[in-house]
Design a protein that fits this description.
Blueprint (H helix, E strand, L loop, with lengths): L8 E2 L6 E2 L16 H4 L9 H15 L3 H17 L3 H14 L8 H13 L3 H10 L5 H15 L8 H7 L1
Antiparallel strand pairs: 1-2
Length: about 170
């Protein structure tokens, strides 16, 4: 996460944000002038870097890159977390959650990441239901799923890492 500021670039002239600044800039010329883009859909996100990731997510949606947009909004949430911007992190996680589709995220790692997003936004019953509907039957995946469900039972929206699973379970 310490390298996140290098993951995206912003054009100082027009405000275009992308992981590859040369990619599709002209295609999005009108969109990057819009209020939706400039104001991050009206969301108050404090960090400049988090706003950059949010805008990158909006560009990726224009490019129909839903999974990558999901990641960009998640990255915006992480930066917001690092800057103690709880509301901004919530907005960014909510935006990522809106994009989730089982057909696109047919991967246990991505599914568990989605469970974490649901739990971190306080959607505990949704997170537990998601865990129950998606079978995580492999060692660490099952352990993480059970850990997430336990956190949901105690209505815990905190930030945890995999090592915490061993301590709590």
């Amino acid at each position: 996460r310490s390298t996140m500021r290098f993951w995206i670039k912003k054009c100082p002239e027009c405000g275009y944000v992308h992981g590859d600044i040369e990619k599709n800039a002209k295609q999005h010329k009108t969109f990057i002038k819009s209020k939706k883009y400039k104001l991050c859909e009206g969301k108050k996100i404090e960090s400049v870097l988090a706003r950059g990731f949010y805008k990158y997510g909006l560009i990726l949606l224009c490019e129909q890159e839903t999974v990558r947009a999901y990641d960009a909004f998640l990255h915006a949430a992480w930066v917001s977390d690092d800057n103690n911007d709880k509301k901004g992190a919530q907005y960014c996680r909510d935006r990522a959650i809106e994009l989730y589709d089982d057909a696109l995220f047919d991967n246990p790692n991505l599914q568990l990441r989605h469970v974490d997003l649901l739990r971190r936004t306080g959607r505990f019953s949704e997170a537990v239901k998601f865990c129950d509907e998606h079978v995580f039957d492999e060692g660490i995946m099952k352990k993480i799923s059970e850990f997430q469900k336990k956190l949901c039972q105690s209505k815990d929206t905190g930030c945890y890492c995999i090592a915490d699973c061993n301590e709590i379970l």
